[in-house]
User: Which sequence fits this backbone?
């Protein structure tokens, strides 16, 4: 929490001036009843028209000064709050950029987005209201009481009784209803989940003819929600009548004591009216304060969530080398293991493999066998838990981040494009000429449909929604190729392509660069069978390394996978 | 035009409120009583103050009886206030609950074309968030607008009764406050619009970049991304400050105008009393009542203008919900529709034509005859529209012309429910309900015994992994943090079908993402299930395709070839190309 305060530092002046303006305004408001009392006692009581007029002018002056102070306060509060939240948001965004893949995994994308949007706006609103009201409201409440005591101590007692009672009711109702409203929110979440599930499962539900059953359970959840809403609503409905009773009983008490004191000559009629006015001011301020507390407690919760994200130390640090050691091997794994922070199990265990420059390596295995984990080690998306990983003979953590990104091109499993043009997407990995881009598109088998869509300047919608799955995959491949990496990783990135296109693509990539080391992850034996080397993974362990033919001989799991895809082995071989 | 639409929405809302119409007059009556009393109590207090003349001139007895009278009215008033809130809550929450139920049951009657083409988030928003916002608006409308208007009218009446000169002073000056609030509101509207635009830009940037943070990191684009964000953030900072500051001027300025009105009332009142000099133009008590009226009189004005915006939002939300509720429903089953019981499983498609959109014909003149127990494989590249066939067979979509018949009966003359229940469907992306595994398996047959459930699970090769879960069949996938794998979920959905033993099957083979072992189990379960049942399989593996009685080859949503494996290979068409490409290079 404390670390957030530093983003308020540039706004110290605003943070002080805002509430100060509010306090001045409140002080002026507290003077008004005294002026009115004076109008009544000296002006009306004494029949002094001049005095009454002067006092009215004073009221106008007080109003003008009040306007000035409050505009002043609103401006500085808004400036501090907006600046503070902008600072926080910027700090968050910058911080997120420094996080590693495993940090991002444990955070989760939706969490990060909520911190950046909803939470930071809540902090903004909370700070703004706090600067404006947190000091003002109690100041008016206690100021009114002090003024009352100054006028008459026995009348002041009515305030001393009323204020605590009002506070108990206002905050009592608040604290009782807060958990009730939380329950209401849970009820809303429940029917929200039902609606969402009903839509995503619409085919299954209709296939089994369960529409009525769905409606029934929705109606019953909805009824529970309505009941919860009513319960919370009835209790918070007590707030107005109870405060009304208390404040008016306070007034009755005040008038009664006032009457006695006036009768004995210790108090004037105007002063009684002033006391009456002070009493009325209290209620409004207490209710404002109660609303403020809701807003503040939300803002504090949001602030601590934001601060949790900022507290995450990035788990990776990089070296400074940009060149390798001209080793024979492009990539070398020595007993590499990987365990994700969130999991007790190893995702990869004791993998040792050496890959020469220009080799094509296929990686195959079932779901969860560790294929993606293995290729995620090479660009250092994750660090090996045990063992070693060398890129061109140099330990991977001695490279700078930029060097790794330049050397290694990755086509991720999920084909993601960013909103913009095809050109912007292709140059994402670094500047390149139109010729280079066109060539990359040709290699990726994407040239045809890109020409159809309007060439390099064709629009790409967010997420690449205006392209089909297969087209997106080919574009992401082109993006990786365009930056001409030394090592290219295709992480199951041709799964949406039909076999023919997939085959053409592999051929073209081989043509494209003889020196490029290529890793192909796939579920299909047909995609990897022509690789120089195939790594077979099962449950995080390497169970075979070799060519297609060698593995068919020696590796049972490879054979099993192959058989499941080509049941009668060899029958249709040409 | 817009007003007309709003009126339409209002009358629909009134229709829903109609159910609680006996509560509405009660609420209004209570609002009336409590407003009048709230205004009348200060008058009595004023009377009491008048009885406090000065030293030795206090009518103590009169004061006490006034205060006693006030206390009783205060009691009545607060009871009325509470009852009114309770009733308003009841009306608002019940009406929203009703609308929500209506919206949800509407979802069950929407044609799938409508559900498929509308983003689910949008529908969920209408059913949940829009109804919520509408509920808040309704409550505000009841509590604030009713009492607000009554307070304004009431105060005016009381003021006129007490003293017309002061009443007129107030009446002339108050529009000033409203005018200023409006003026600022109009000015800030554009600022808020600018801020909303900047905010939307920032949000969509944040969404896109952070969702793809790994990509940004993989291409080393962090500093570019930060620079872009800073630019957007700075613009948002500026427009937020403008919008927040200028909108927060409304309160101080209206308060300022109120203070001016207050001063004017003080002046007029004081002069009246002084010049009246004892004659009963205005008493000091009444003077103080007038002052406190002036203070609270303008408050409802500001509140109402705030509430009015809120109310318009609520109406817009209500309109969105009604739009959903009034969407075109699928054609209901005919009254004389046949109920298909224990179907044999002969399927015949004659001259079927179908398209999702009128201008893009997809299926033309499709003829297909399937006898009981036959296997039909549907093959083609991803995205070629294999699911279209499923949509038509299950009548998720109706064909445009032609006929699909099961056991010789046209399926459009059949109840949808009985047709669908005749099929067992296992889709690739498995959907499970949020219940336990037991609930999920018995989904199609809620009265199944435990034994039947376990038998179905065993037949689907799901029993062995289910029993190893910590809570066995009571495990709630998802909630118990028992993340089931895609393959395991599919096994459960096979068990779900096994239990209902339908006469026809629709199966969707997995393309990838399932490990080999589980996959083999699924294959075994599939072949066990297919024995003696007419099966339509969206097929990816050659073994399934080879064993099929008929292969439908699809491309770009169209069926381009039909026949058996060997025939199709010989023809050398698209199928042959697909098949051979496996062995290219």
Assistant:
């Amino acid at each position: 929490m404390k670390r957030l305060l530093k983003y308020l530092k540039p706004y110290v002046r605003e943070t002080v001036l805002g509430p100060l303006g509010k306090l001045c305004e409140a002080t002026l408001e507290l003077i008004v009843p005294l002026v009115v009392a004076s109008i009544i006692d000296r002006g009306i009581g004494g029949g002094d028209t001049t005095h009454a007029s002067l006092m009215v002018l004073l009221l106008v002056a007080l109003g003008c000064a009040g306007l000035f102070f409050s505009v002043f306060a609103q401006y500085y509060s808004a400036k501090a709050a907006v600046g503070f939240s902008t600072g926080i948001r910027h700090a968050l965004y910058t911080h997120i950029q420094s996080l590693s893949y495993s940090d991002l995994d444990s955070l989760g994308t939706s969490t990060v987005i909520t911190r950046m949007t909803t939470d930071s706006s809540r902090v903004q609103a909370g700070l703004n209201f706090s600067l404006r009201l947190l000091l003002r409201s109690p100041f008016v409440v206690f100021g009114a009481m002090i003024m009352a005591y100054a006028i008459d101590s026995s009348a002041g007692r009515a305030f001393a009784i009323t204020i605590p009672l009002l506070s108990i009711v206002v905050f009592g109702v608040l604290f009782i209803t807060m958990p009730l409203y939380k329950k209401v929110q849970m009820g809303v979440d429940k029917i929200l989940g039902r609606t969402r599930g009903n839509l995503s499962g619409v085919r299954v539900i209709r296939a089994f003819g369960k529409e009525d059953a769905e409606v029934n359970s929705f109606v019953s959840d909805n009824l529970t929600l309505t009941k919860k809403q009513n319960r919370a609503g009835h209790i918070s409905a007590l707030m107005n009548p109870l405060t009304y009773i208390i404040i008016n009983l306070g007034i009755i008490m005040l008038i009664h004591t006032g009457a006695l004191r006036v009768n004995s000559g210790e108090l004037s009629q105007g002063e009684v009216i002033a006391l009456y006015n002070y009493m009325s001011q209290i209620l409004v301020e207490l209710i404002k304060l109660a609303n403020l507390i809701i807003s503040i407690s939300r803002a504090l919760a949001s602030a601590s969530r934001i601060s949790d994200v900022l507290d995450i130390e990035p788990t990776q640090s990089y070296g400074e080398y940009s060149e390798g050691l001209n080793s024979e091997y492009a990539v070398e794994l020595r007993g590499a293991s990987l365990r994700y922070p969130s999991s007790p199990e190893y995702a990869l265990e004791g993998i040792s493999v050496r890959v020469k420059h220009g080799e094509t390596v296929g990686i195959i295995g079932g779901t969860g066998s560790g294929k993606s984990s293995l290729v995620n080690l090479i660009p250092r998306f994750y660090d090996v838990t045990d063992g070693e990983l060398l890129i061109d003979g140099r330990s991977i953590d001695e490279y700078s981040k930029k060097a790794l990104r330049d050397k290694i091109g990755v086509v991720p499993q999920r084909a993601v494009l960013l909103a913009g043009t095809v050109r912007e997407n292709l140059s994402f990995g670094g500047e390149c000429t139109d010729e280079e881009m066109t060539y990359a598109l040709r290699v990726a088998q994407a040239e045809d449909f890109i020409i159809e869509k309007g060439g390099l300047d064709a629009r790409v919608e967010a997420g690449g929604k205006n392209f089909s799955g297969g087209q997106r995959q080919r574009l992401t491949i082109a993006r990786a190729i365009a930056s001409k990496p030394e090592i290219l990783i295709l992480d199951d990135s041709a799964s949406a392509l039909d076999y023919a296109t997939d085959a053409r693509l592999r051929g073209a990539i081989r043509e494209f660069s003889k020196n490029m080391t290529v890793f192909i992850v796939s579920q299909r034996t047909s995609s990897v069978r022509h690789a120089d080397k195939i790594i077979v993974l099962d449950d995080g362990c390497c169970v075979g390394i070799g060519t297609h033919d060698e593995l068919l001989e020696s590796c049972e799991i490879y054979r099993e996978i192959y058989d499941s895809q080509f049941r009668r082995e060899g029958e249709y071989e040409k | 035009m817009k007003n007309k639409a709003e009126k339409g929405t209002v009358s629909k809302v009134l229709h829903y409120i109609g159910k609680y119409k006996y509560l509405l007059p009660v609420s209004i009556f209570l609002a009336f009583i409590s407003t009048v009393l709230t205004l009348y109590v200060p008058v009595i207090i004023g009377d009491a103050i008048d009885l406090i003349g000065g030293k030795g001139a206090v009518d103590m007895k009169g004061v006490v009886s006034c205060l006693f009278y006030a206390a009783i009215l205060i009691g009545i008033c607060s009871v009325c206030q509470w009852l009114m809130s309770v009733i308003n809550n009841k009306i608002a929450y019940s009406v929203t609950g009703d609308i929500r139920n209506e919206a949800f049951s509407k979802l069950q009657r929407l044609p799938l074309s409508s559900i498929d083409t509308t983003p689910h988030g949008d529908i969920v928003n209408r059913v949940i968030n829009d109804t919520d916002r509408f509920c808040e608006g309704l409550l505000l409308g009841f509590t604030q607008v009713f009492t607000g208007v009554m307070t304004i009218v009431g105060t005016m009446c009381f003021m006129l009764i007490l003293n017309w000169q002061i009443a007129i002073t107030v009446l002339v000056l108050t529009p000033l406050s409203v005018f200023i609030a409006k003026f600022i509101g109009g000015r800030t509207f554009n600022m808020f619009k600018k801020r909303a635009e900047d905010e939307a830009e920032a949000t969509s940037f944040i969404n896109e970049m952070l969702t793809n943070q790994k990509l940004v990191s993989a291409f080393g684009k962090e500093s570019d991304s930060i620079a872009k964000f800073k630019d957007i953030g700075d613009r948002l900072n500026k427009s937020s400050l403008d919008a927040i500051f200028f909108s927060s001027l409304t309160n101080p300025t209206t308060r300022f105008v109120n203070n001016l009105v207050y001063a004017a009332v003080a002046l007029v009142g004081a002069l009246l009393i002084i010049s009246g000099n004892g004659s009963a133009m205005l008493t000091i008590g009444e003077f103080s009542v007038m002052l406190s009226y002036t203070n609270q009189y303008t408050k409802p004005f500001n509140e109402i203008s705030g509430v009015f915006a809120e109310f318009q939002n609520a109406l817009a939300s209500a309109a969105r919900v009604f739009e959903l509720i009034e969407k075109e429903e699928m054609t209901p089953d005919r009254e004389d529709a046949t109920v298909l019981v224990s179907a044999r499983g002969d399927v015949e498609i004659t001259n079927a034509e179908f398209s999702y959109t009128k201008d893009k014909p997809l299926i033309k003149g499709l003829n297909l005859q399937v006898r009981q127990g036959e296997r039909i494989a549907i093959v083609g590249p991803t995205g070629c529209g294999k699911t279209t066939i499923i949509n038509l067979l299950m009548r998720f979509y109706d064909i445009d012309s032609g006929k699909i018949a099961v056991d010789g009966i046209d399926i459009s003359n059949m109840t949808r429910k009985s047709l669908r229940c005749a099929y067992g469907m296992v889709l690739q992306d498995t959907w499970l309900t949020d219940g336990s595994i037991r609930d999920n398996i018995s989904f199609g047959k809620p009265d199944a015994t435990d034994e039947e459930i376990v038998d179905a699970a065993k037949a689907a090769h799901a029993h062995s992994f289910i029993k190893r879960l910590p809570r066995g069949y009571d495990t709630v996938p998802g909630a118990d943090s028992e993340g089931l794998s895609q393959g395991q979920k599919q096994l459960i959905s096979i068990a779900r079908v096994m239990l209902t033993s339908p006469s026809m099957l629709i199966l969707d083979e997995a393309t990838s993402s399932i490990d080999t072992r589980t996959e083999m189990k699924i294959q075994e379960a599939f072949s066990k299930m297919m024995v003696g049942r007419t099966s339509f399989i969206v097929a990816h593996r050659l073994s399934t395709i080879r064993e099929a009685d008929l292969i439908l080859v699809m491309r770009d949503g169209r069926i381009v070839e039909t026949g058996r494996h060997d025939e199709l290979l010989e023809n050398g068409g698209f199928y042959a190309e697909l098949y051979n490409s496996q062995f290219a290079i």
Remarks:
- The first strand of chain B starts at residue 347 and ends at 354.
- The beta strands of chain B are 347-354, 363-370, 375-379, 401-406, 409-410, 423-426, 504-508, 534-538, 550-555, 558-563.
